[in-house]
Amino acid sequence: MDESHSLLLNEEALRQCPDAKKPVFLYEWLRYLDRILPVTQRADLKSIQPQLVQQLLSRLTSVNGPPIRYLLARCLARIYMIGDSSTFGDTLNLCNDTLKIKDDSPSQLPAKLAVLACIAAFYETMGRCGSSFVDTFPIMVKWLKVAESQGRAEILITLSSMVTGLGSGAANFHKDVYKAAKAHLADRVMPVRTAALQCVTALVPVYPPLYSTELEAVVTLCTKALDGSNYEARLAVAKLLGVLLATALQPPPPPIGGSFSTF
């Protein structure tokens, strides 16, 4: 599919595709973009970045399935890491505004899930993203309380990525993140339970109470999480217990500073 092998999306070729093949065309373009971005010169990327970012953002509302969603998110994060980051704040604001929409209907949910994937990719790729966590976290927690199972799982996965990317930079929020994840460690939906376990696992190295004063309580929660669990949940429990006990035996050195860094 040569028409899809360029940094910019060939809009005309996409329009000419039969509707059934448009997701395939978009996927092929994103897959090519994902491969070529790491070896693209910064100057070359910056010359087309505004148009490229706009093409990606315009697809957030029509993302078709997880493969396209995760590819789009990773490409967008790499563009900001390699190219110009001056509009990064605007993109984060767009993501937050999308998450604020109180509509989880089949027409709106894909856009919100795509935005979560983007936020996760930003923190995975670039680490600390300024103080954006302060704005994004309350929005996600508010949605988590009313979200359906797919939304709950994706929110918790995104929180895991944010915790890992921020490290000690979000120390003031770690207690609240743990509270949010803890509430879903026994969720009846296995992907949600697994995501909650992954979130707590990400917290262990940066939230000392988990491997000290809360150690016994967390082990008890892990035991309860095994009730009626599937293979993925049991694997997540095993990983959490392994990280938890290893960290308790050999705690990490305390962070030198706990303030947010600026992207």
Key terms for this structure?
263 residues; mainly alpha; Serine Threonine Protein Phosphatase 5, Tetratricopeptide repeat; 2 domains; disordered C terminus
Order of helices and strands: HHHHHHHHHHHH
Radius of gyration from CA coordinates: 20 Å
CA-CA gap between termini: 37 Å
Shape: globular
Give helix % range: 55-70%
Record field, number of beta strands = 0
Strand content: under 5%
Total number of domains = 2
Number of helices: 12
* Overall average pLDDT: 91
Structural class: mainly alpha
SSE layout:
Blueprint: H1 11-16, H2 22-36, H3 42-58, H4 66-82, H5 88-100, H6 109-126, H7 132-144, H8 149-166, H9 174-182, H10 190-203, H11 215-225, H12 231-249
What does this protein structure show overall?
With 263 residues, the protein is an all-alpha fold. The protein folds into two domains: 1-126; 132-253, Alpha Horseshoe (Serine Threonine Protein Phosphatase 5, Tetratricopeptide repeat), CATH 1.25.40. 65% of the residues lie in helices and 0% in strands. The protein has twelve helices and no strands. Helix 4 (66-82) packs across helix 6 (109-126). The model is unreliable at 258-263 (pLDDT under 50). This is HEAT repeat protein.
What's a quick, concise take on this entry?
By secondary structure, this protein is mainly alpha-helical. It has helices spanning 11-16, 22-36, 42-58, 66-82, 88-100, 109-126, 132-144, 149-166, 174-182, 190-203, 215-225, 231-249.
